[in-house]
């Protein structure tokens, strides 16, 4: 039998201490960890293979990304993955902990049915400075101009955000797939 190396011992200790720090919370993974998988793209890893109606529903619970918070935001099967090629709404804030939004492409969990579809979610006040017009991916039955009406989705427990966006007077909401953490797939 070989003895563990010092590096292995340190690795085991640090794994232990971080798991005891989060002992009341289930293990979660970042979006970036799914991007690093060489064999499957994040879409495949994060959506249910046989979703109804061809919708790509989330296969994992969605959690607040803040270390030590871990509030459940969305149960599995509730959001639908959509790819957006134009019309980013989230602000580009250099002080934010999130990667800057891409103006050319983004992916969101689309939740058409309002706040009660979430487990926990908070909303900011309408951002009067956000004058982005109605993005092309907004459902066609939503009428009118939402300039100045964008509300950001924030963690209901710790206020971290924006995790996505919604708008004043509407039910639909979009959670940025890159700004949340994911639980394990239920067996
Ligand atoms: Zn939180």
From TrEMBL:
Q: Which UniProt keywords apply?
A: Guanine-nucleotide releasing factor, Protein transport, Transport
UniProt lists compositionally biased (Polar residues) regions at 21-41
Q: Region (Disordered): which ranges?
A: 14-41
Q: Which residues cross the membrane?
A: none
Which GO terms label this protein's molecular function in UniProt?
guanyl-nucleotide exchange factor activity; zinc ion binding
Question: Known PROSITE patterns for this protein?
Answer: MSS4
Biological process per Gene Ontology, one example term: small GTPase-mediated signal transduction
InterPro entries per record: Mss4, Mss4-like_sf, Mss4/transl-control_tumour
Identify one Gene Ontology CC term for this UniProt entry. Answer: cytosol
What name goes with this protein? Mss4-like protein
Record organism: Kwoniella europaea PYCC6329
């Amino acid at each position: 039998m070989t003895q563990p190396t010092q590096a292995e011992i340190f690795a085991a200790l640090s794994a232990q201490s971080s798991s005891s720090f989060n002992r009341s919370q289930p293990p979660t993974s970042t979006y970036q960890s799914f991007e690093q998988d060489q064999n499957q793209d994040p879409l495949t890893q994060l959506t249910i293979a046989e979703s109804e109606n061809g919708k790509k529903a989330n296969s994992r619970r969605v959690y607040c990304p803040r270390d030590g918070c871990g509030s459940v935001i969305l149960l599995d099967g509730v959001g639908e993955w959509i790819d957006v090629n134009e019309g980013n709404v989230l602000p580009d804030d250099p002080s934010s902990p999130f990667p800057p939004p891409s103006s050319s492409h983004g992916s969101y969990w689309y939740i058409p049915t309002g706040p009660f579809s979430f487990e926990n979610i908070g909303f900011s006040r309408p951002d009067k400075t956000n004058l982005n017009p109605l993005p092309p991916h907004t459902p066609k039955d939503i009428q009118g101009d939402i300039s100045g009406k964008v509300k950001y989705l924030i963690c209901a427990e710790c206020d971290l955000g924006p995790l996505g966006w919604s708008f004043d007077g509407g039910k639909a909401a979009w959670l940025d797939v890159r700004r949340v953490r994911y639980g394990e797939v239920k067996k």
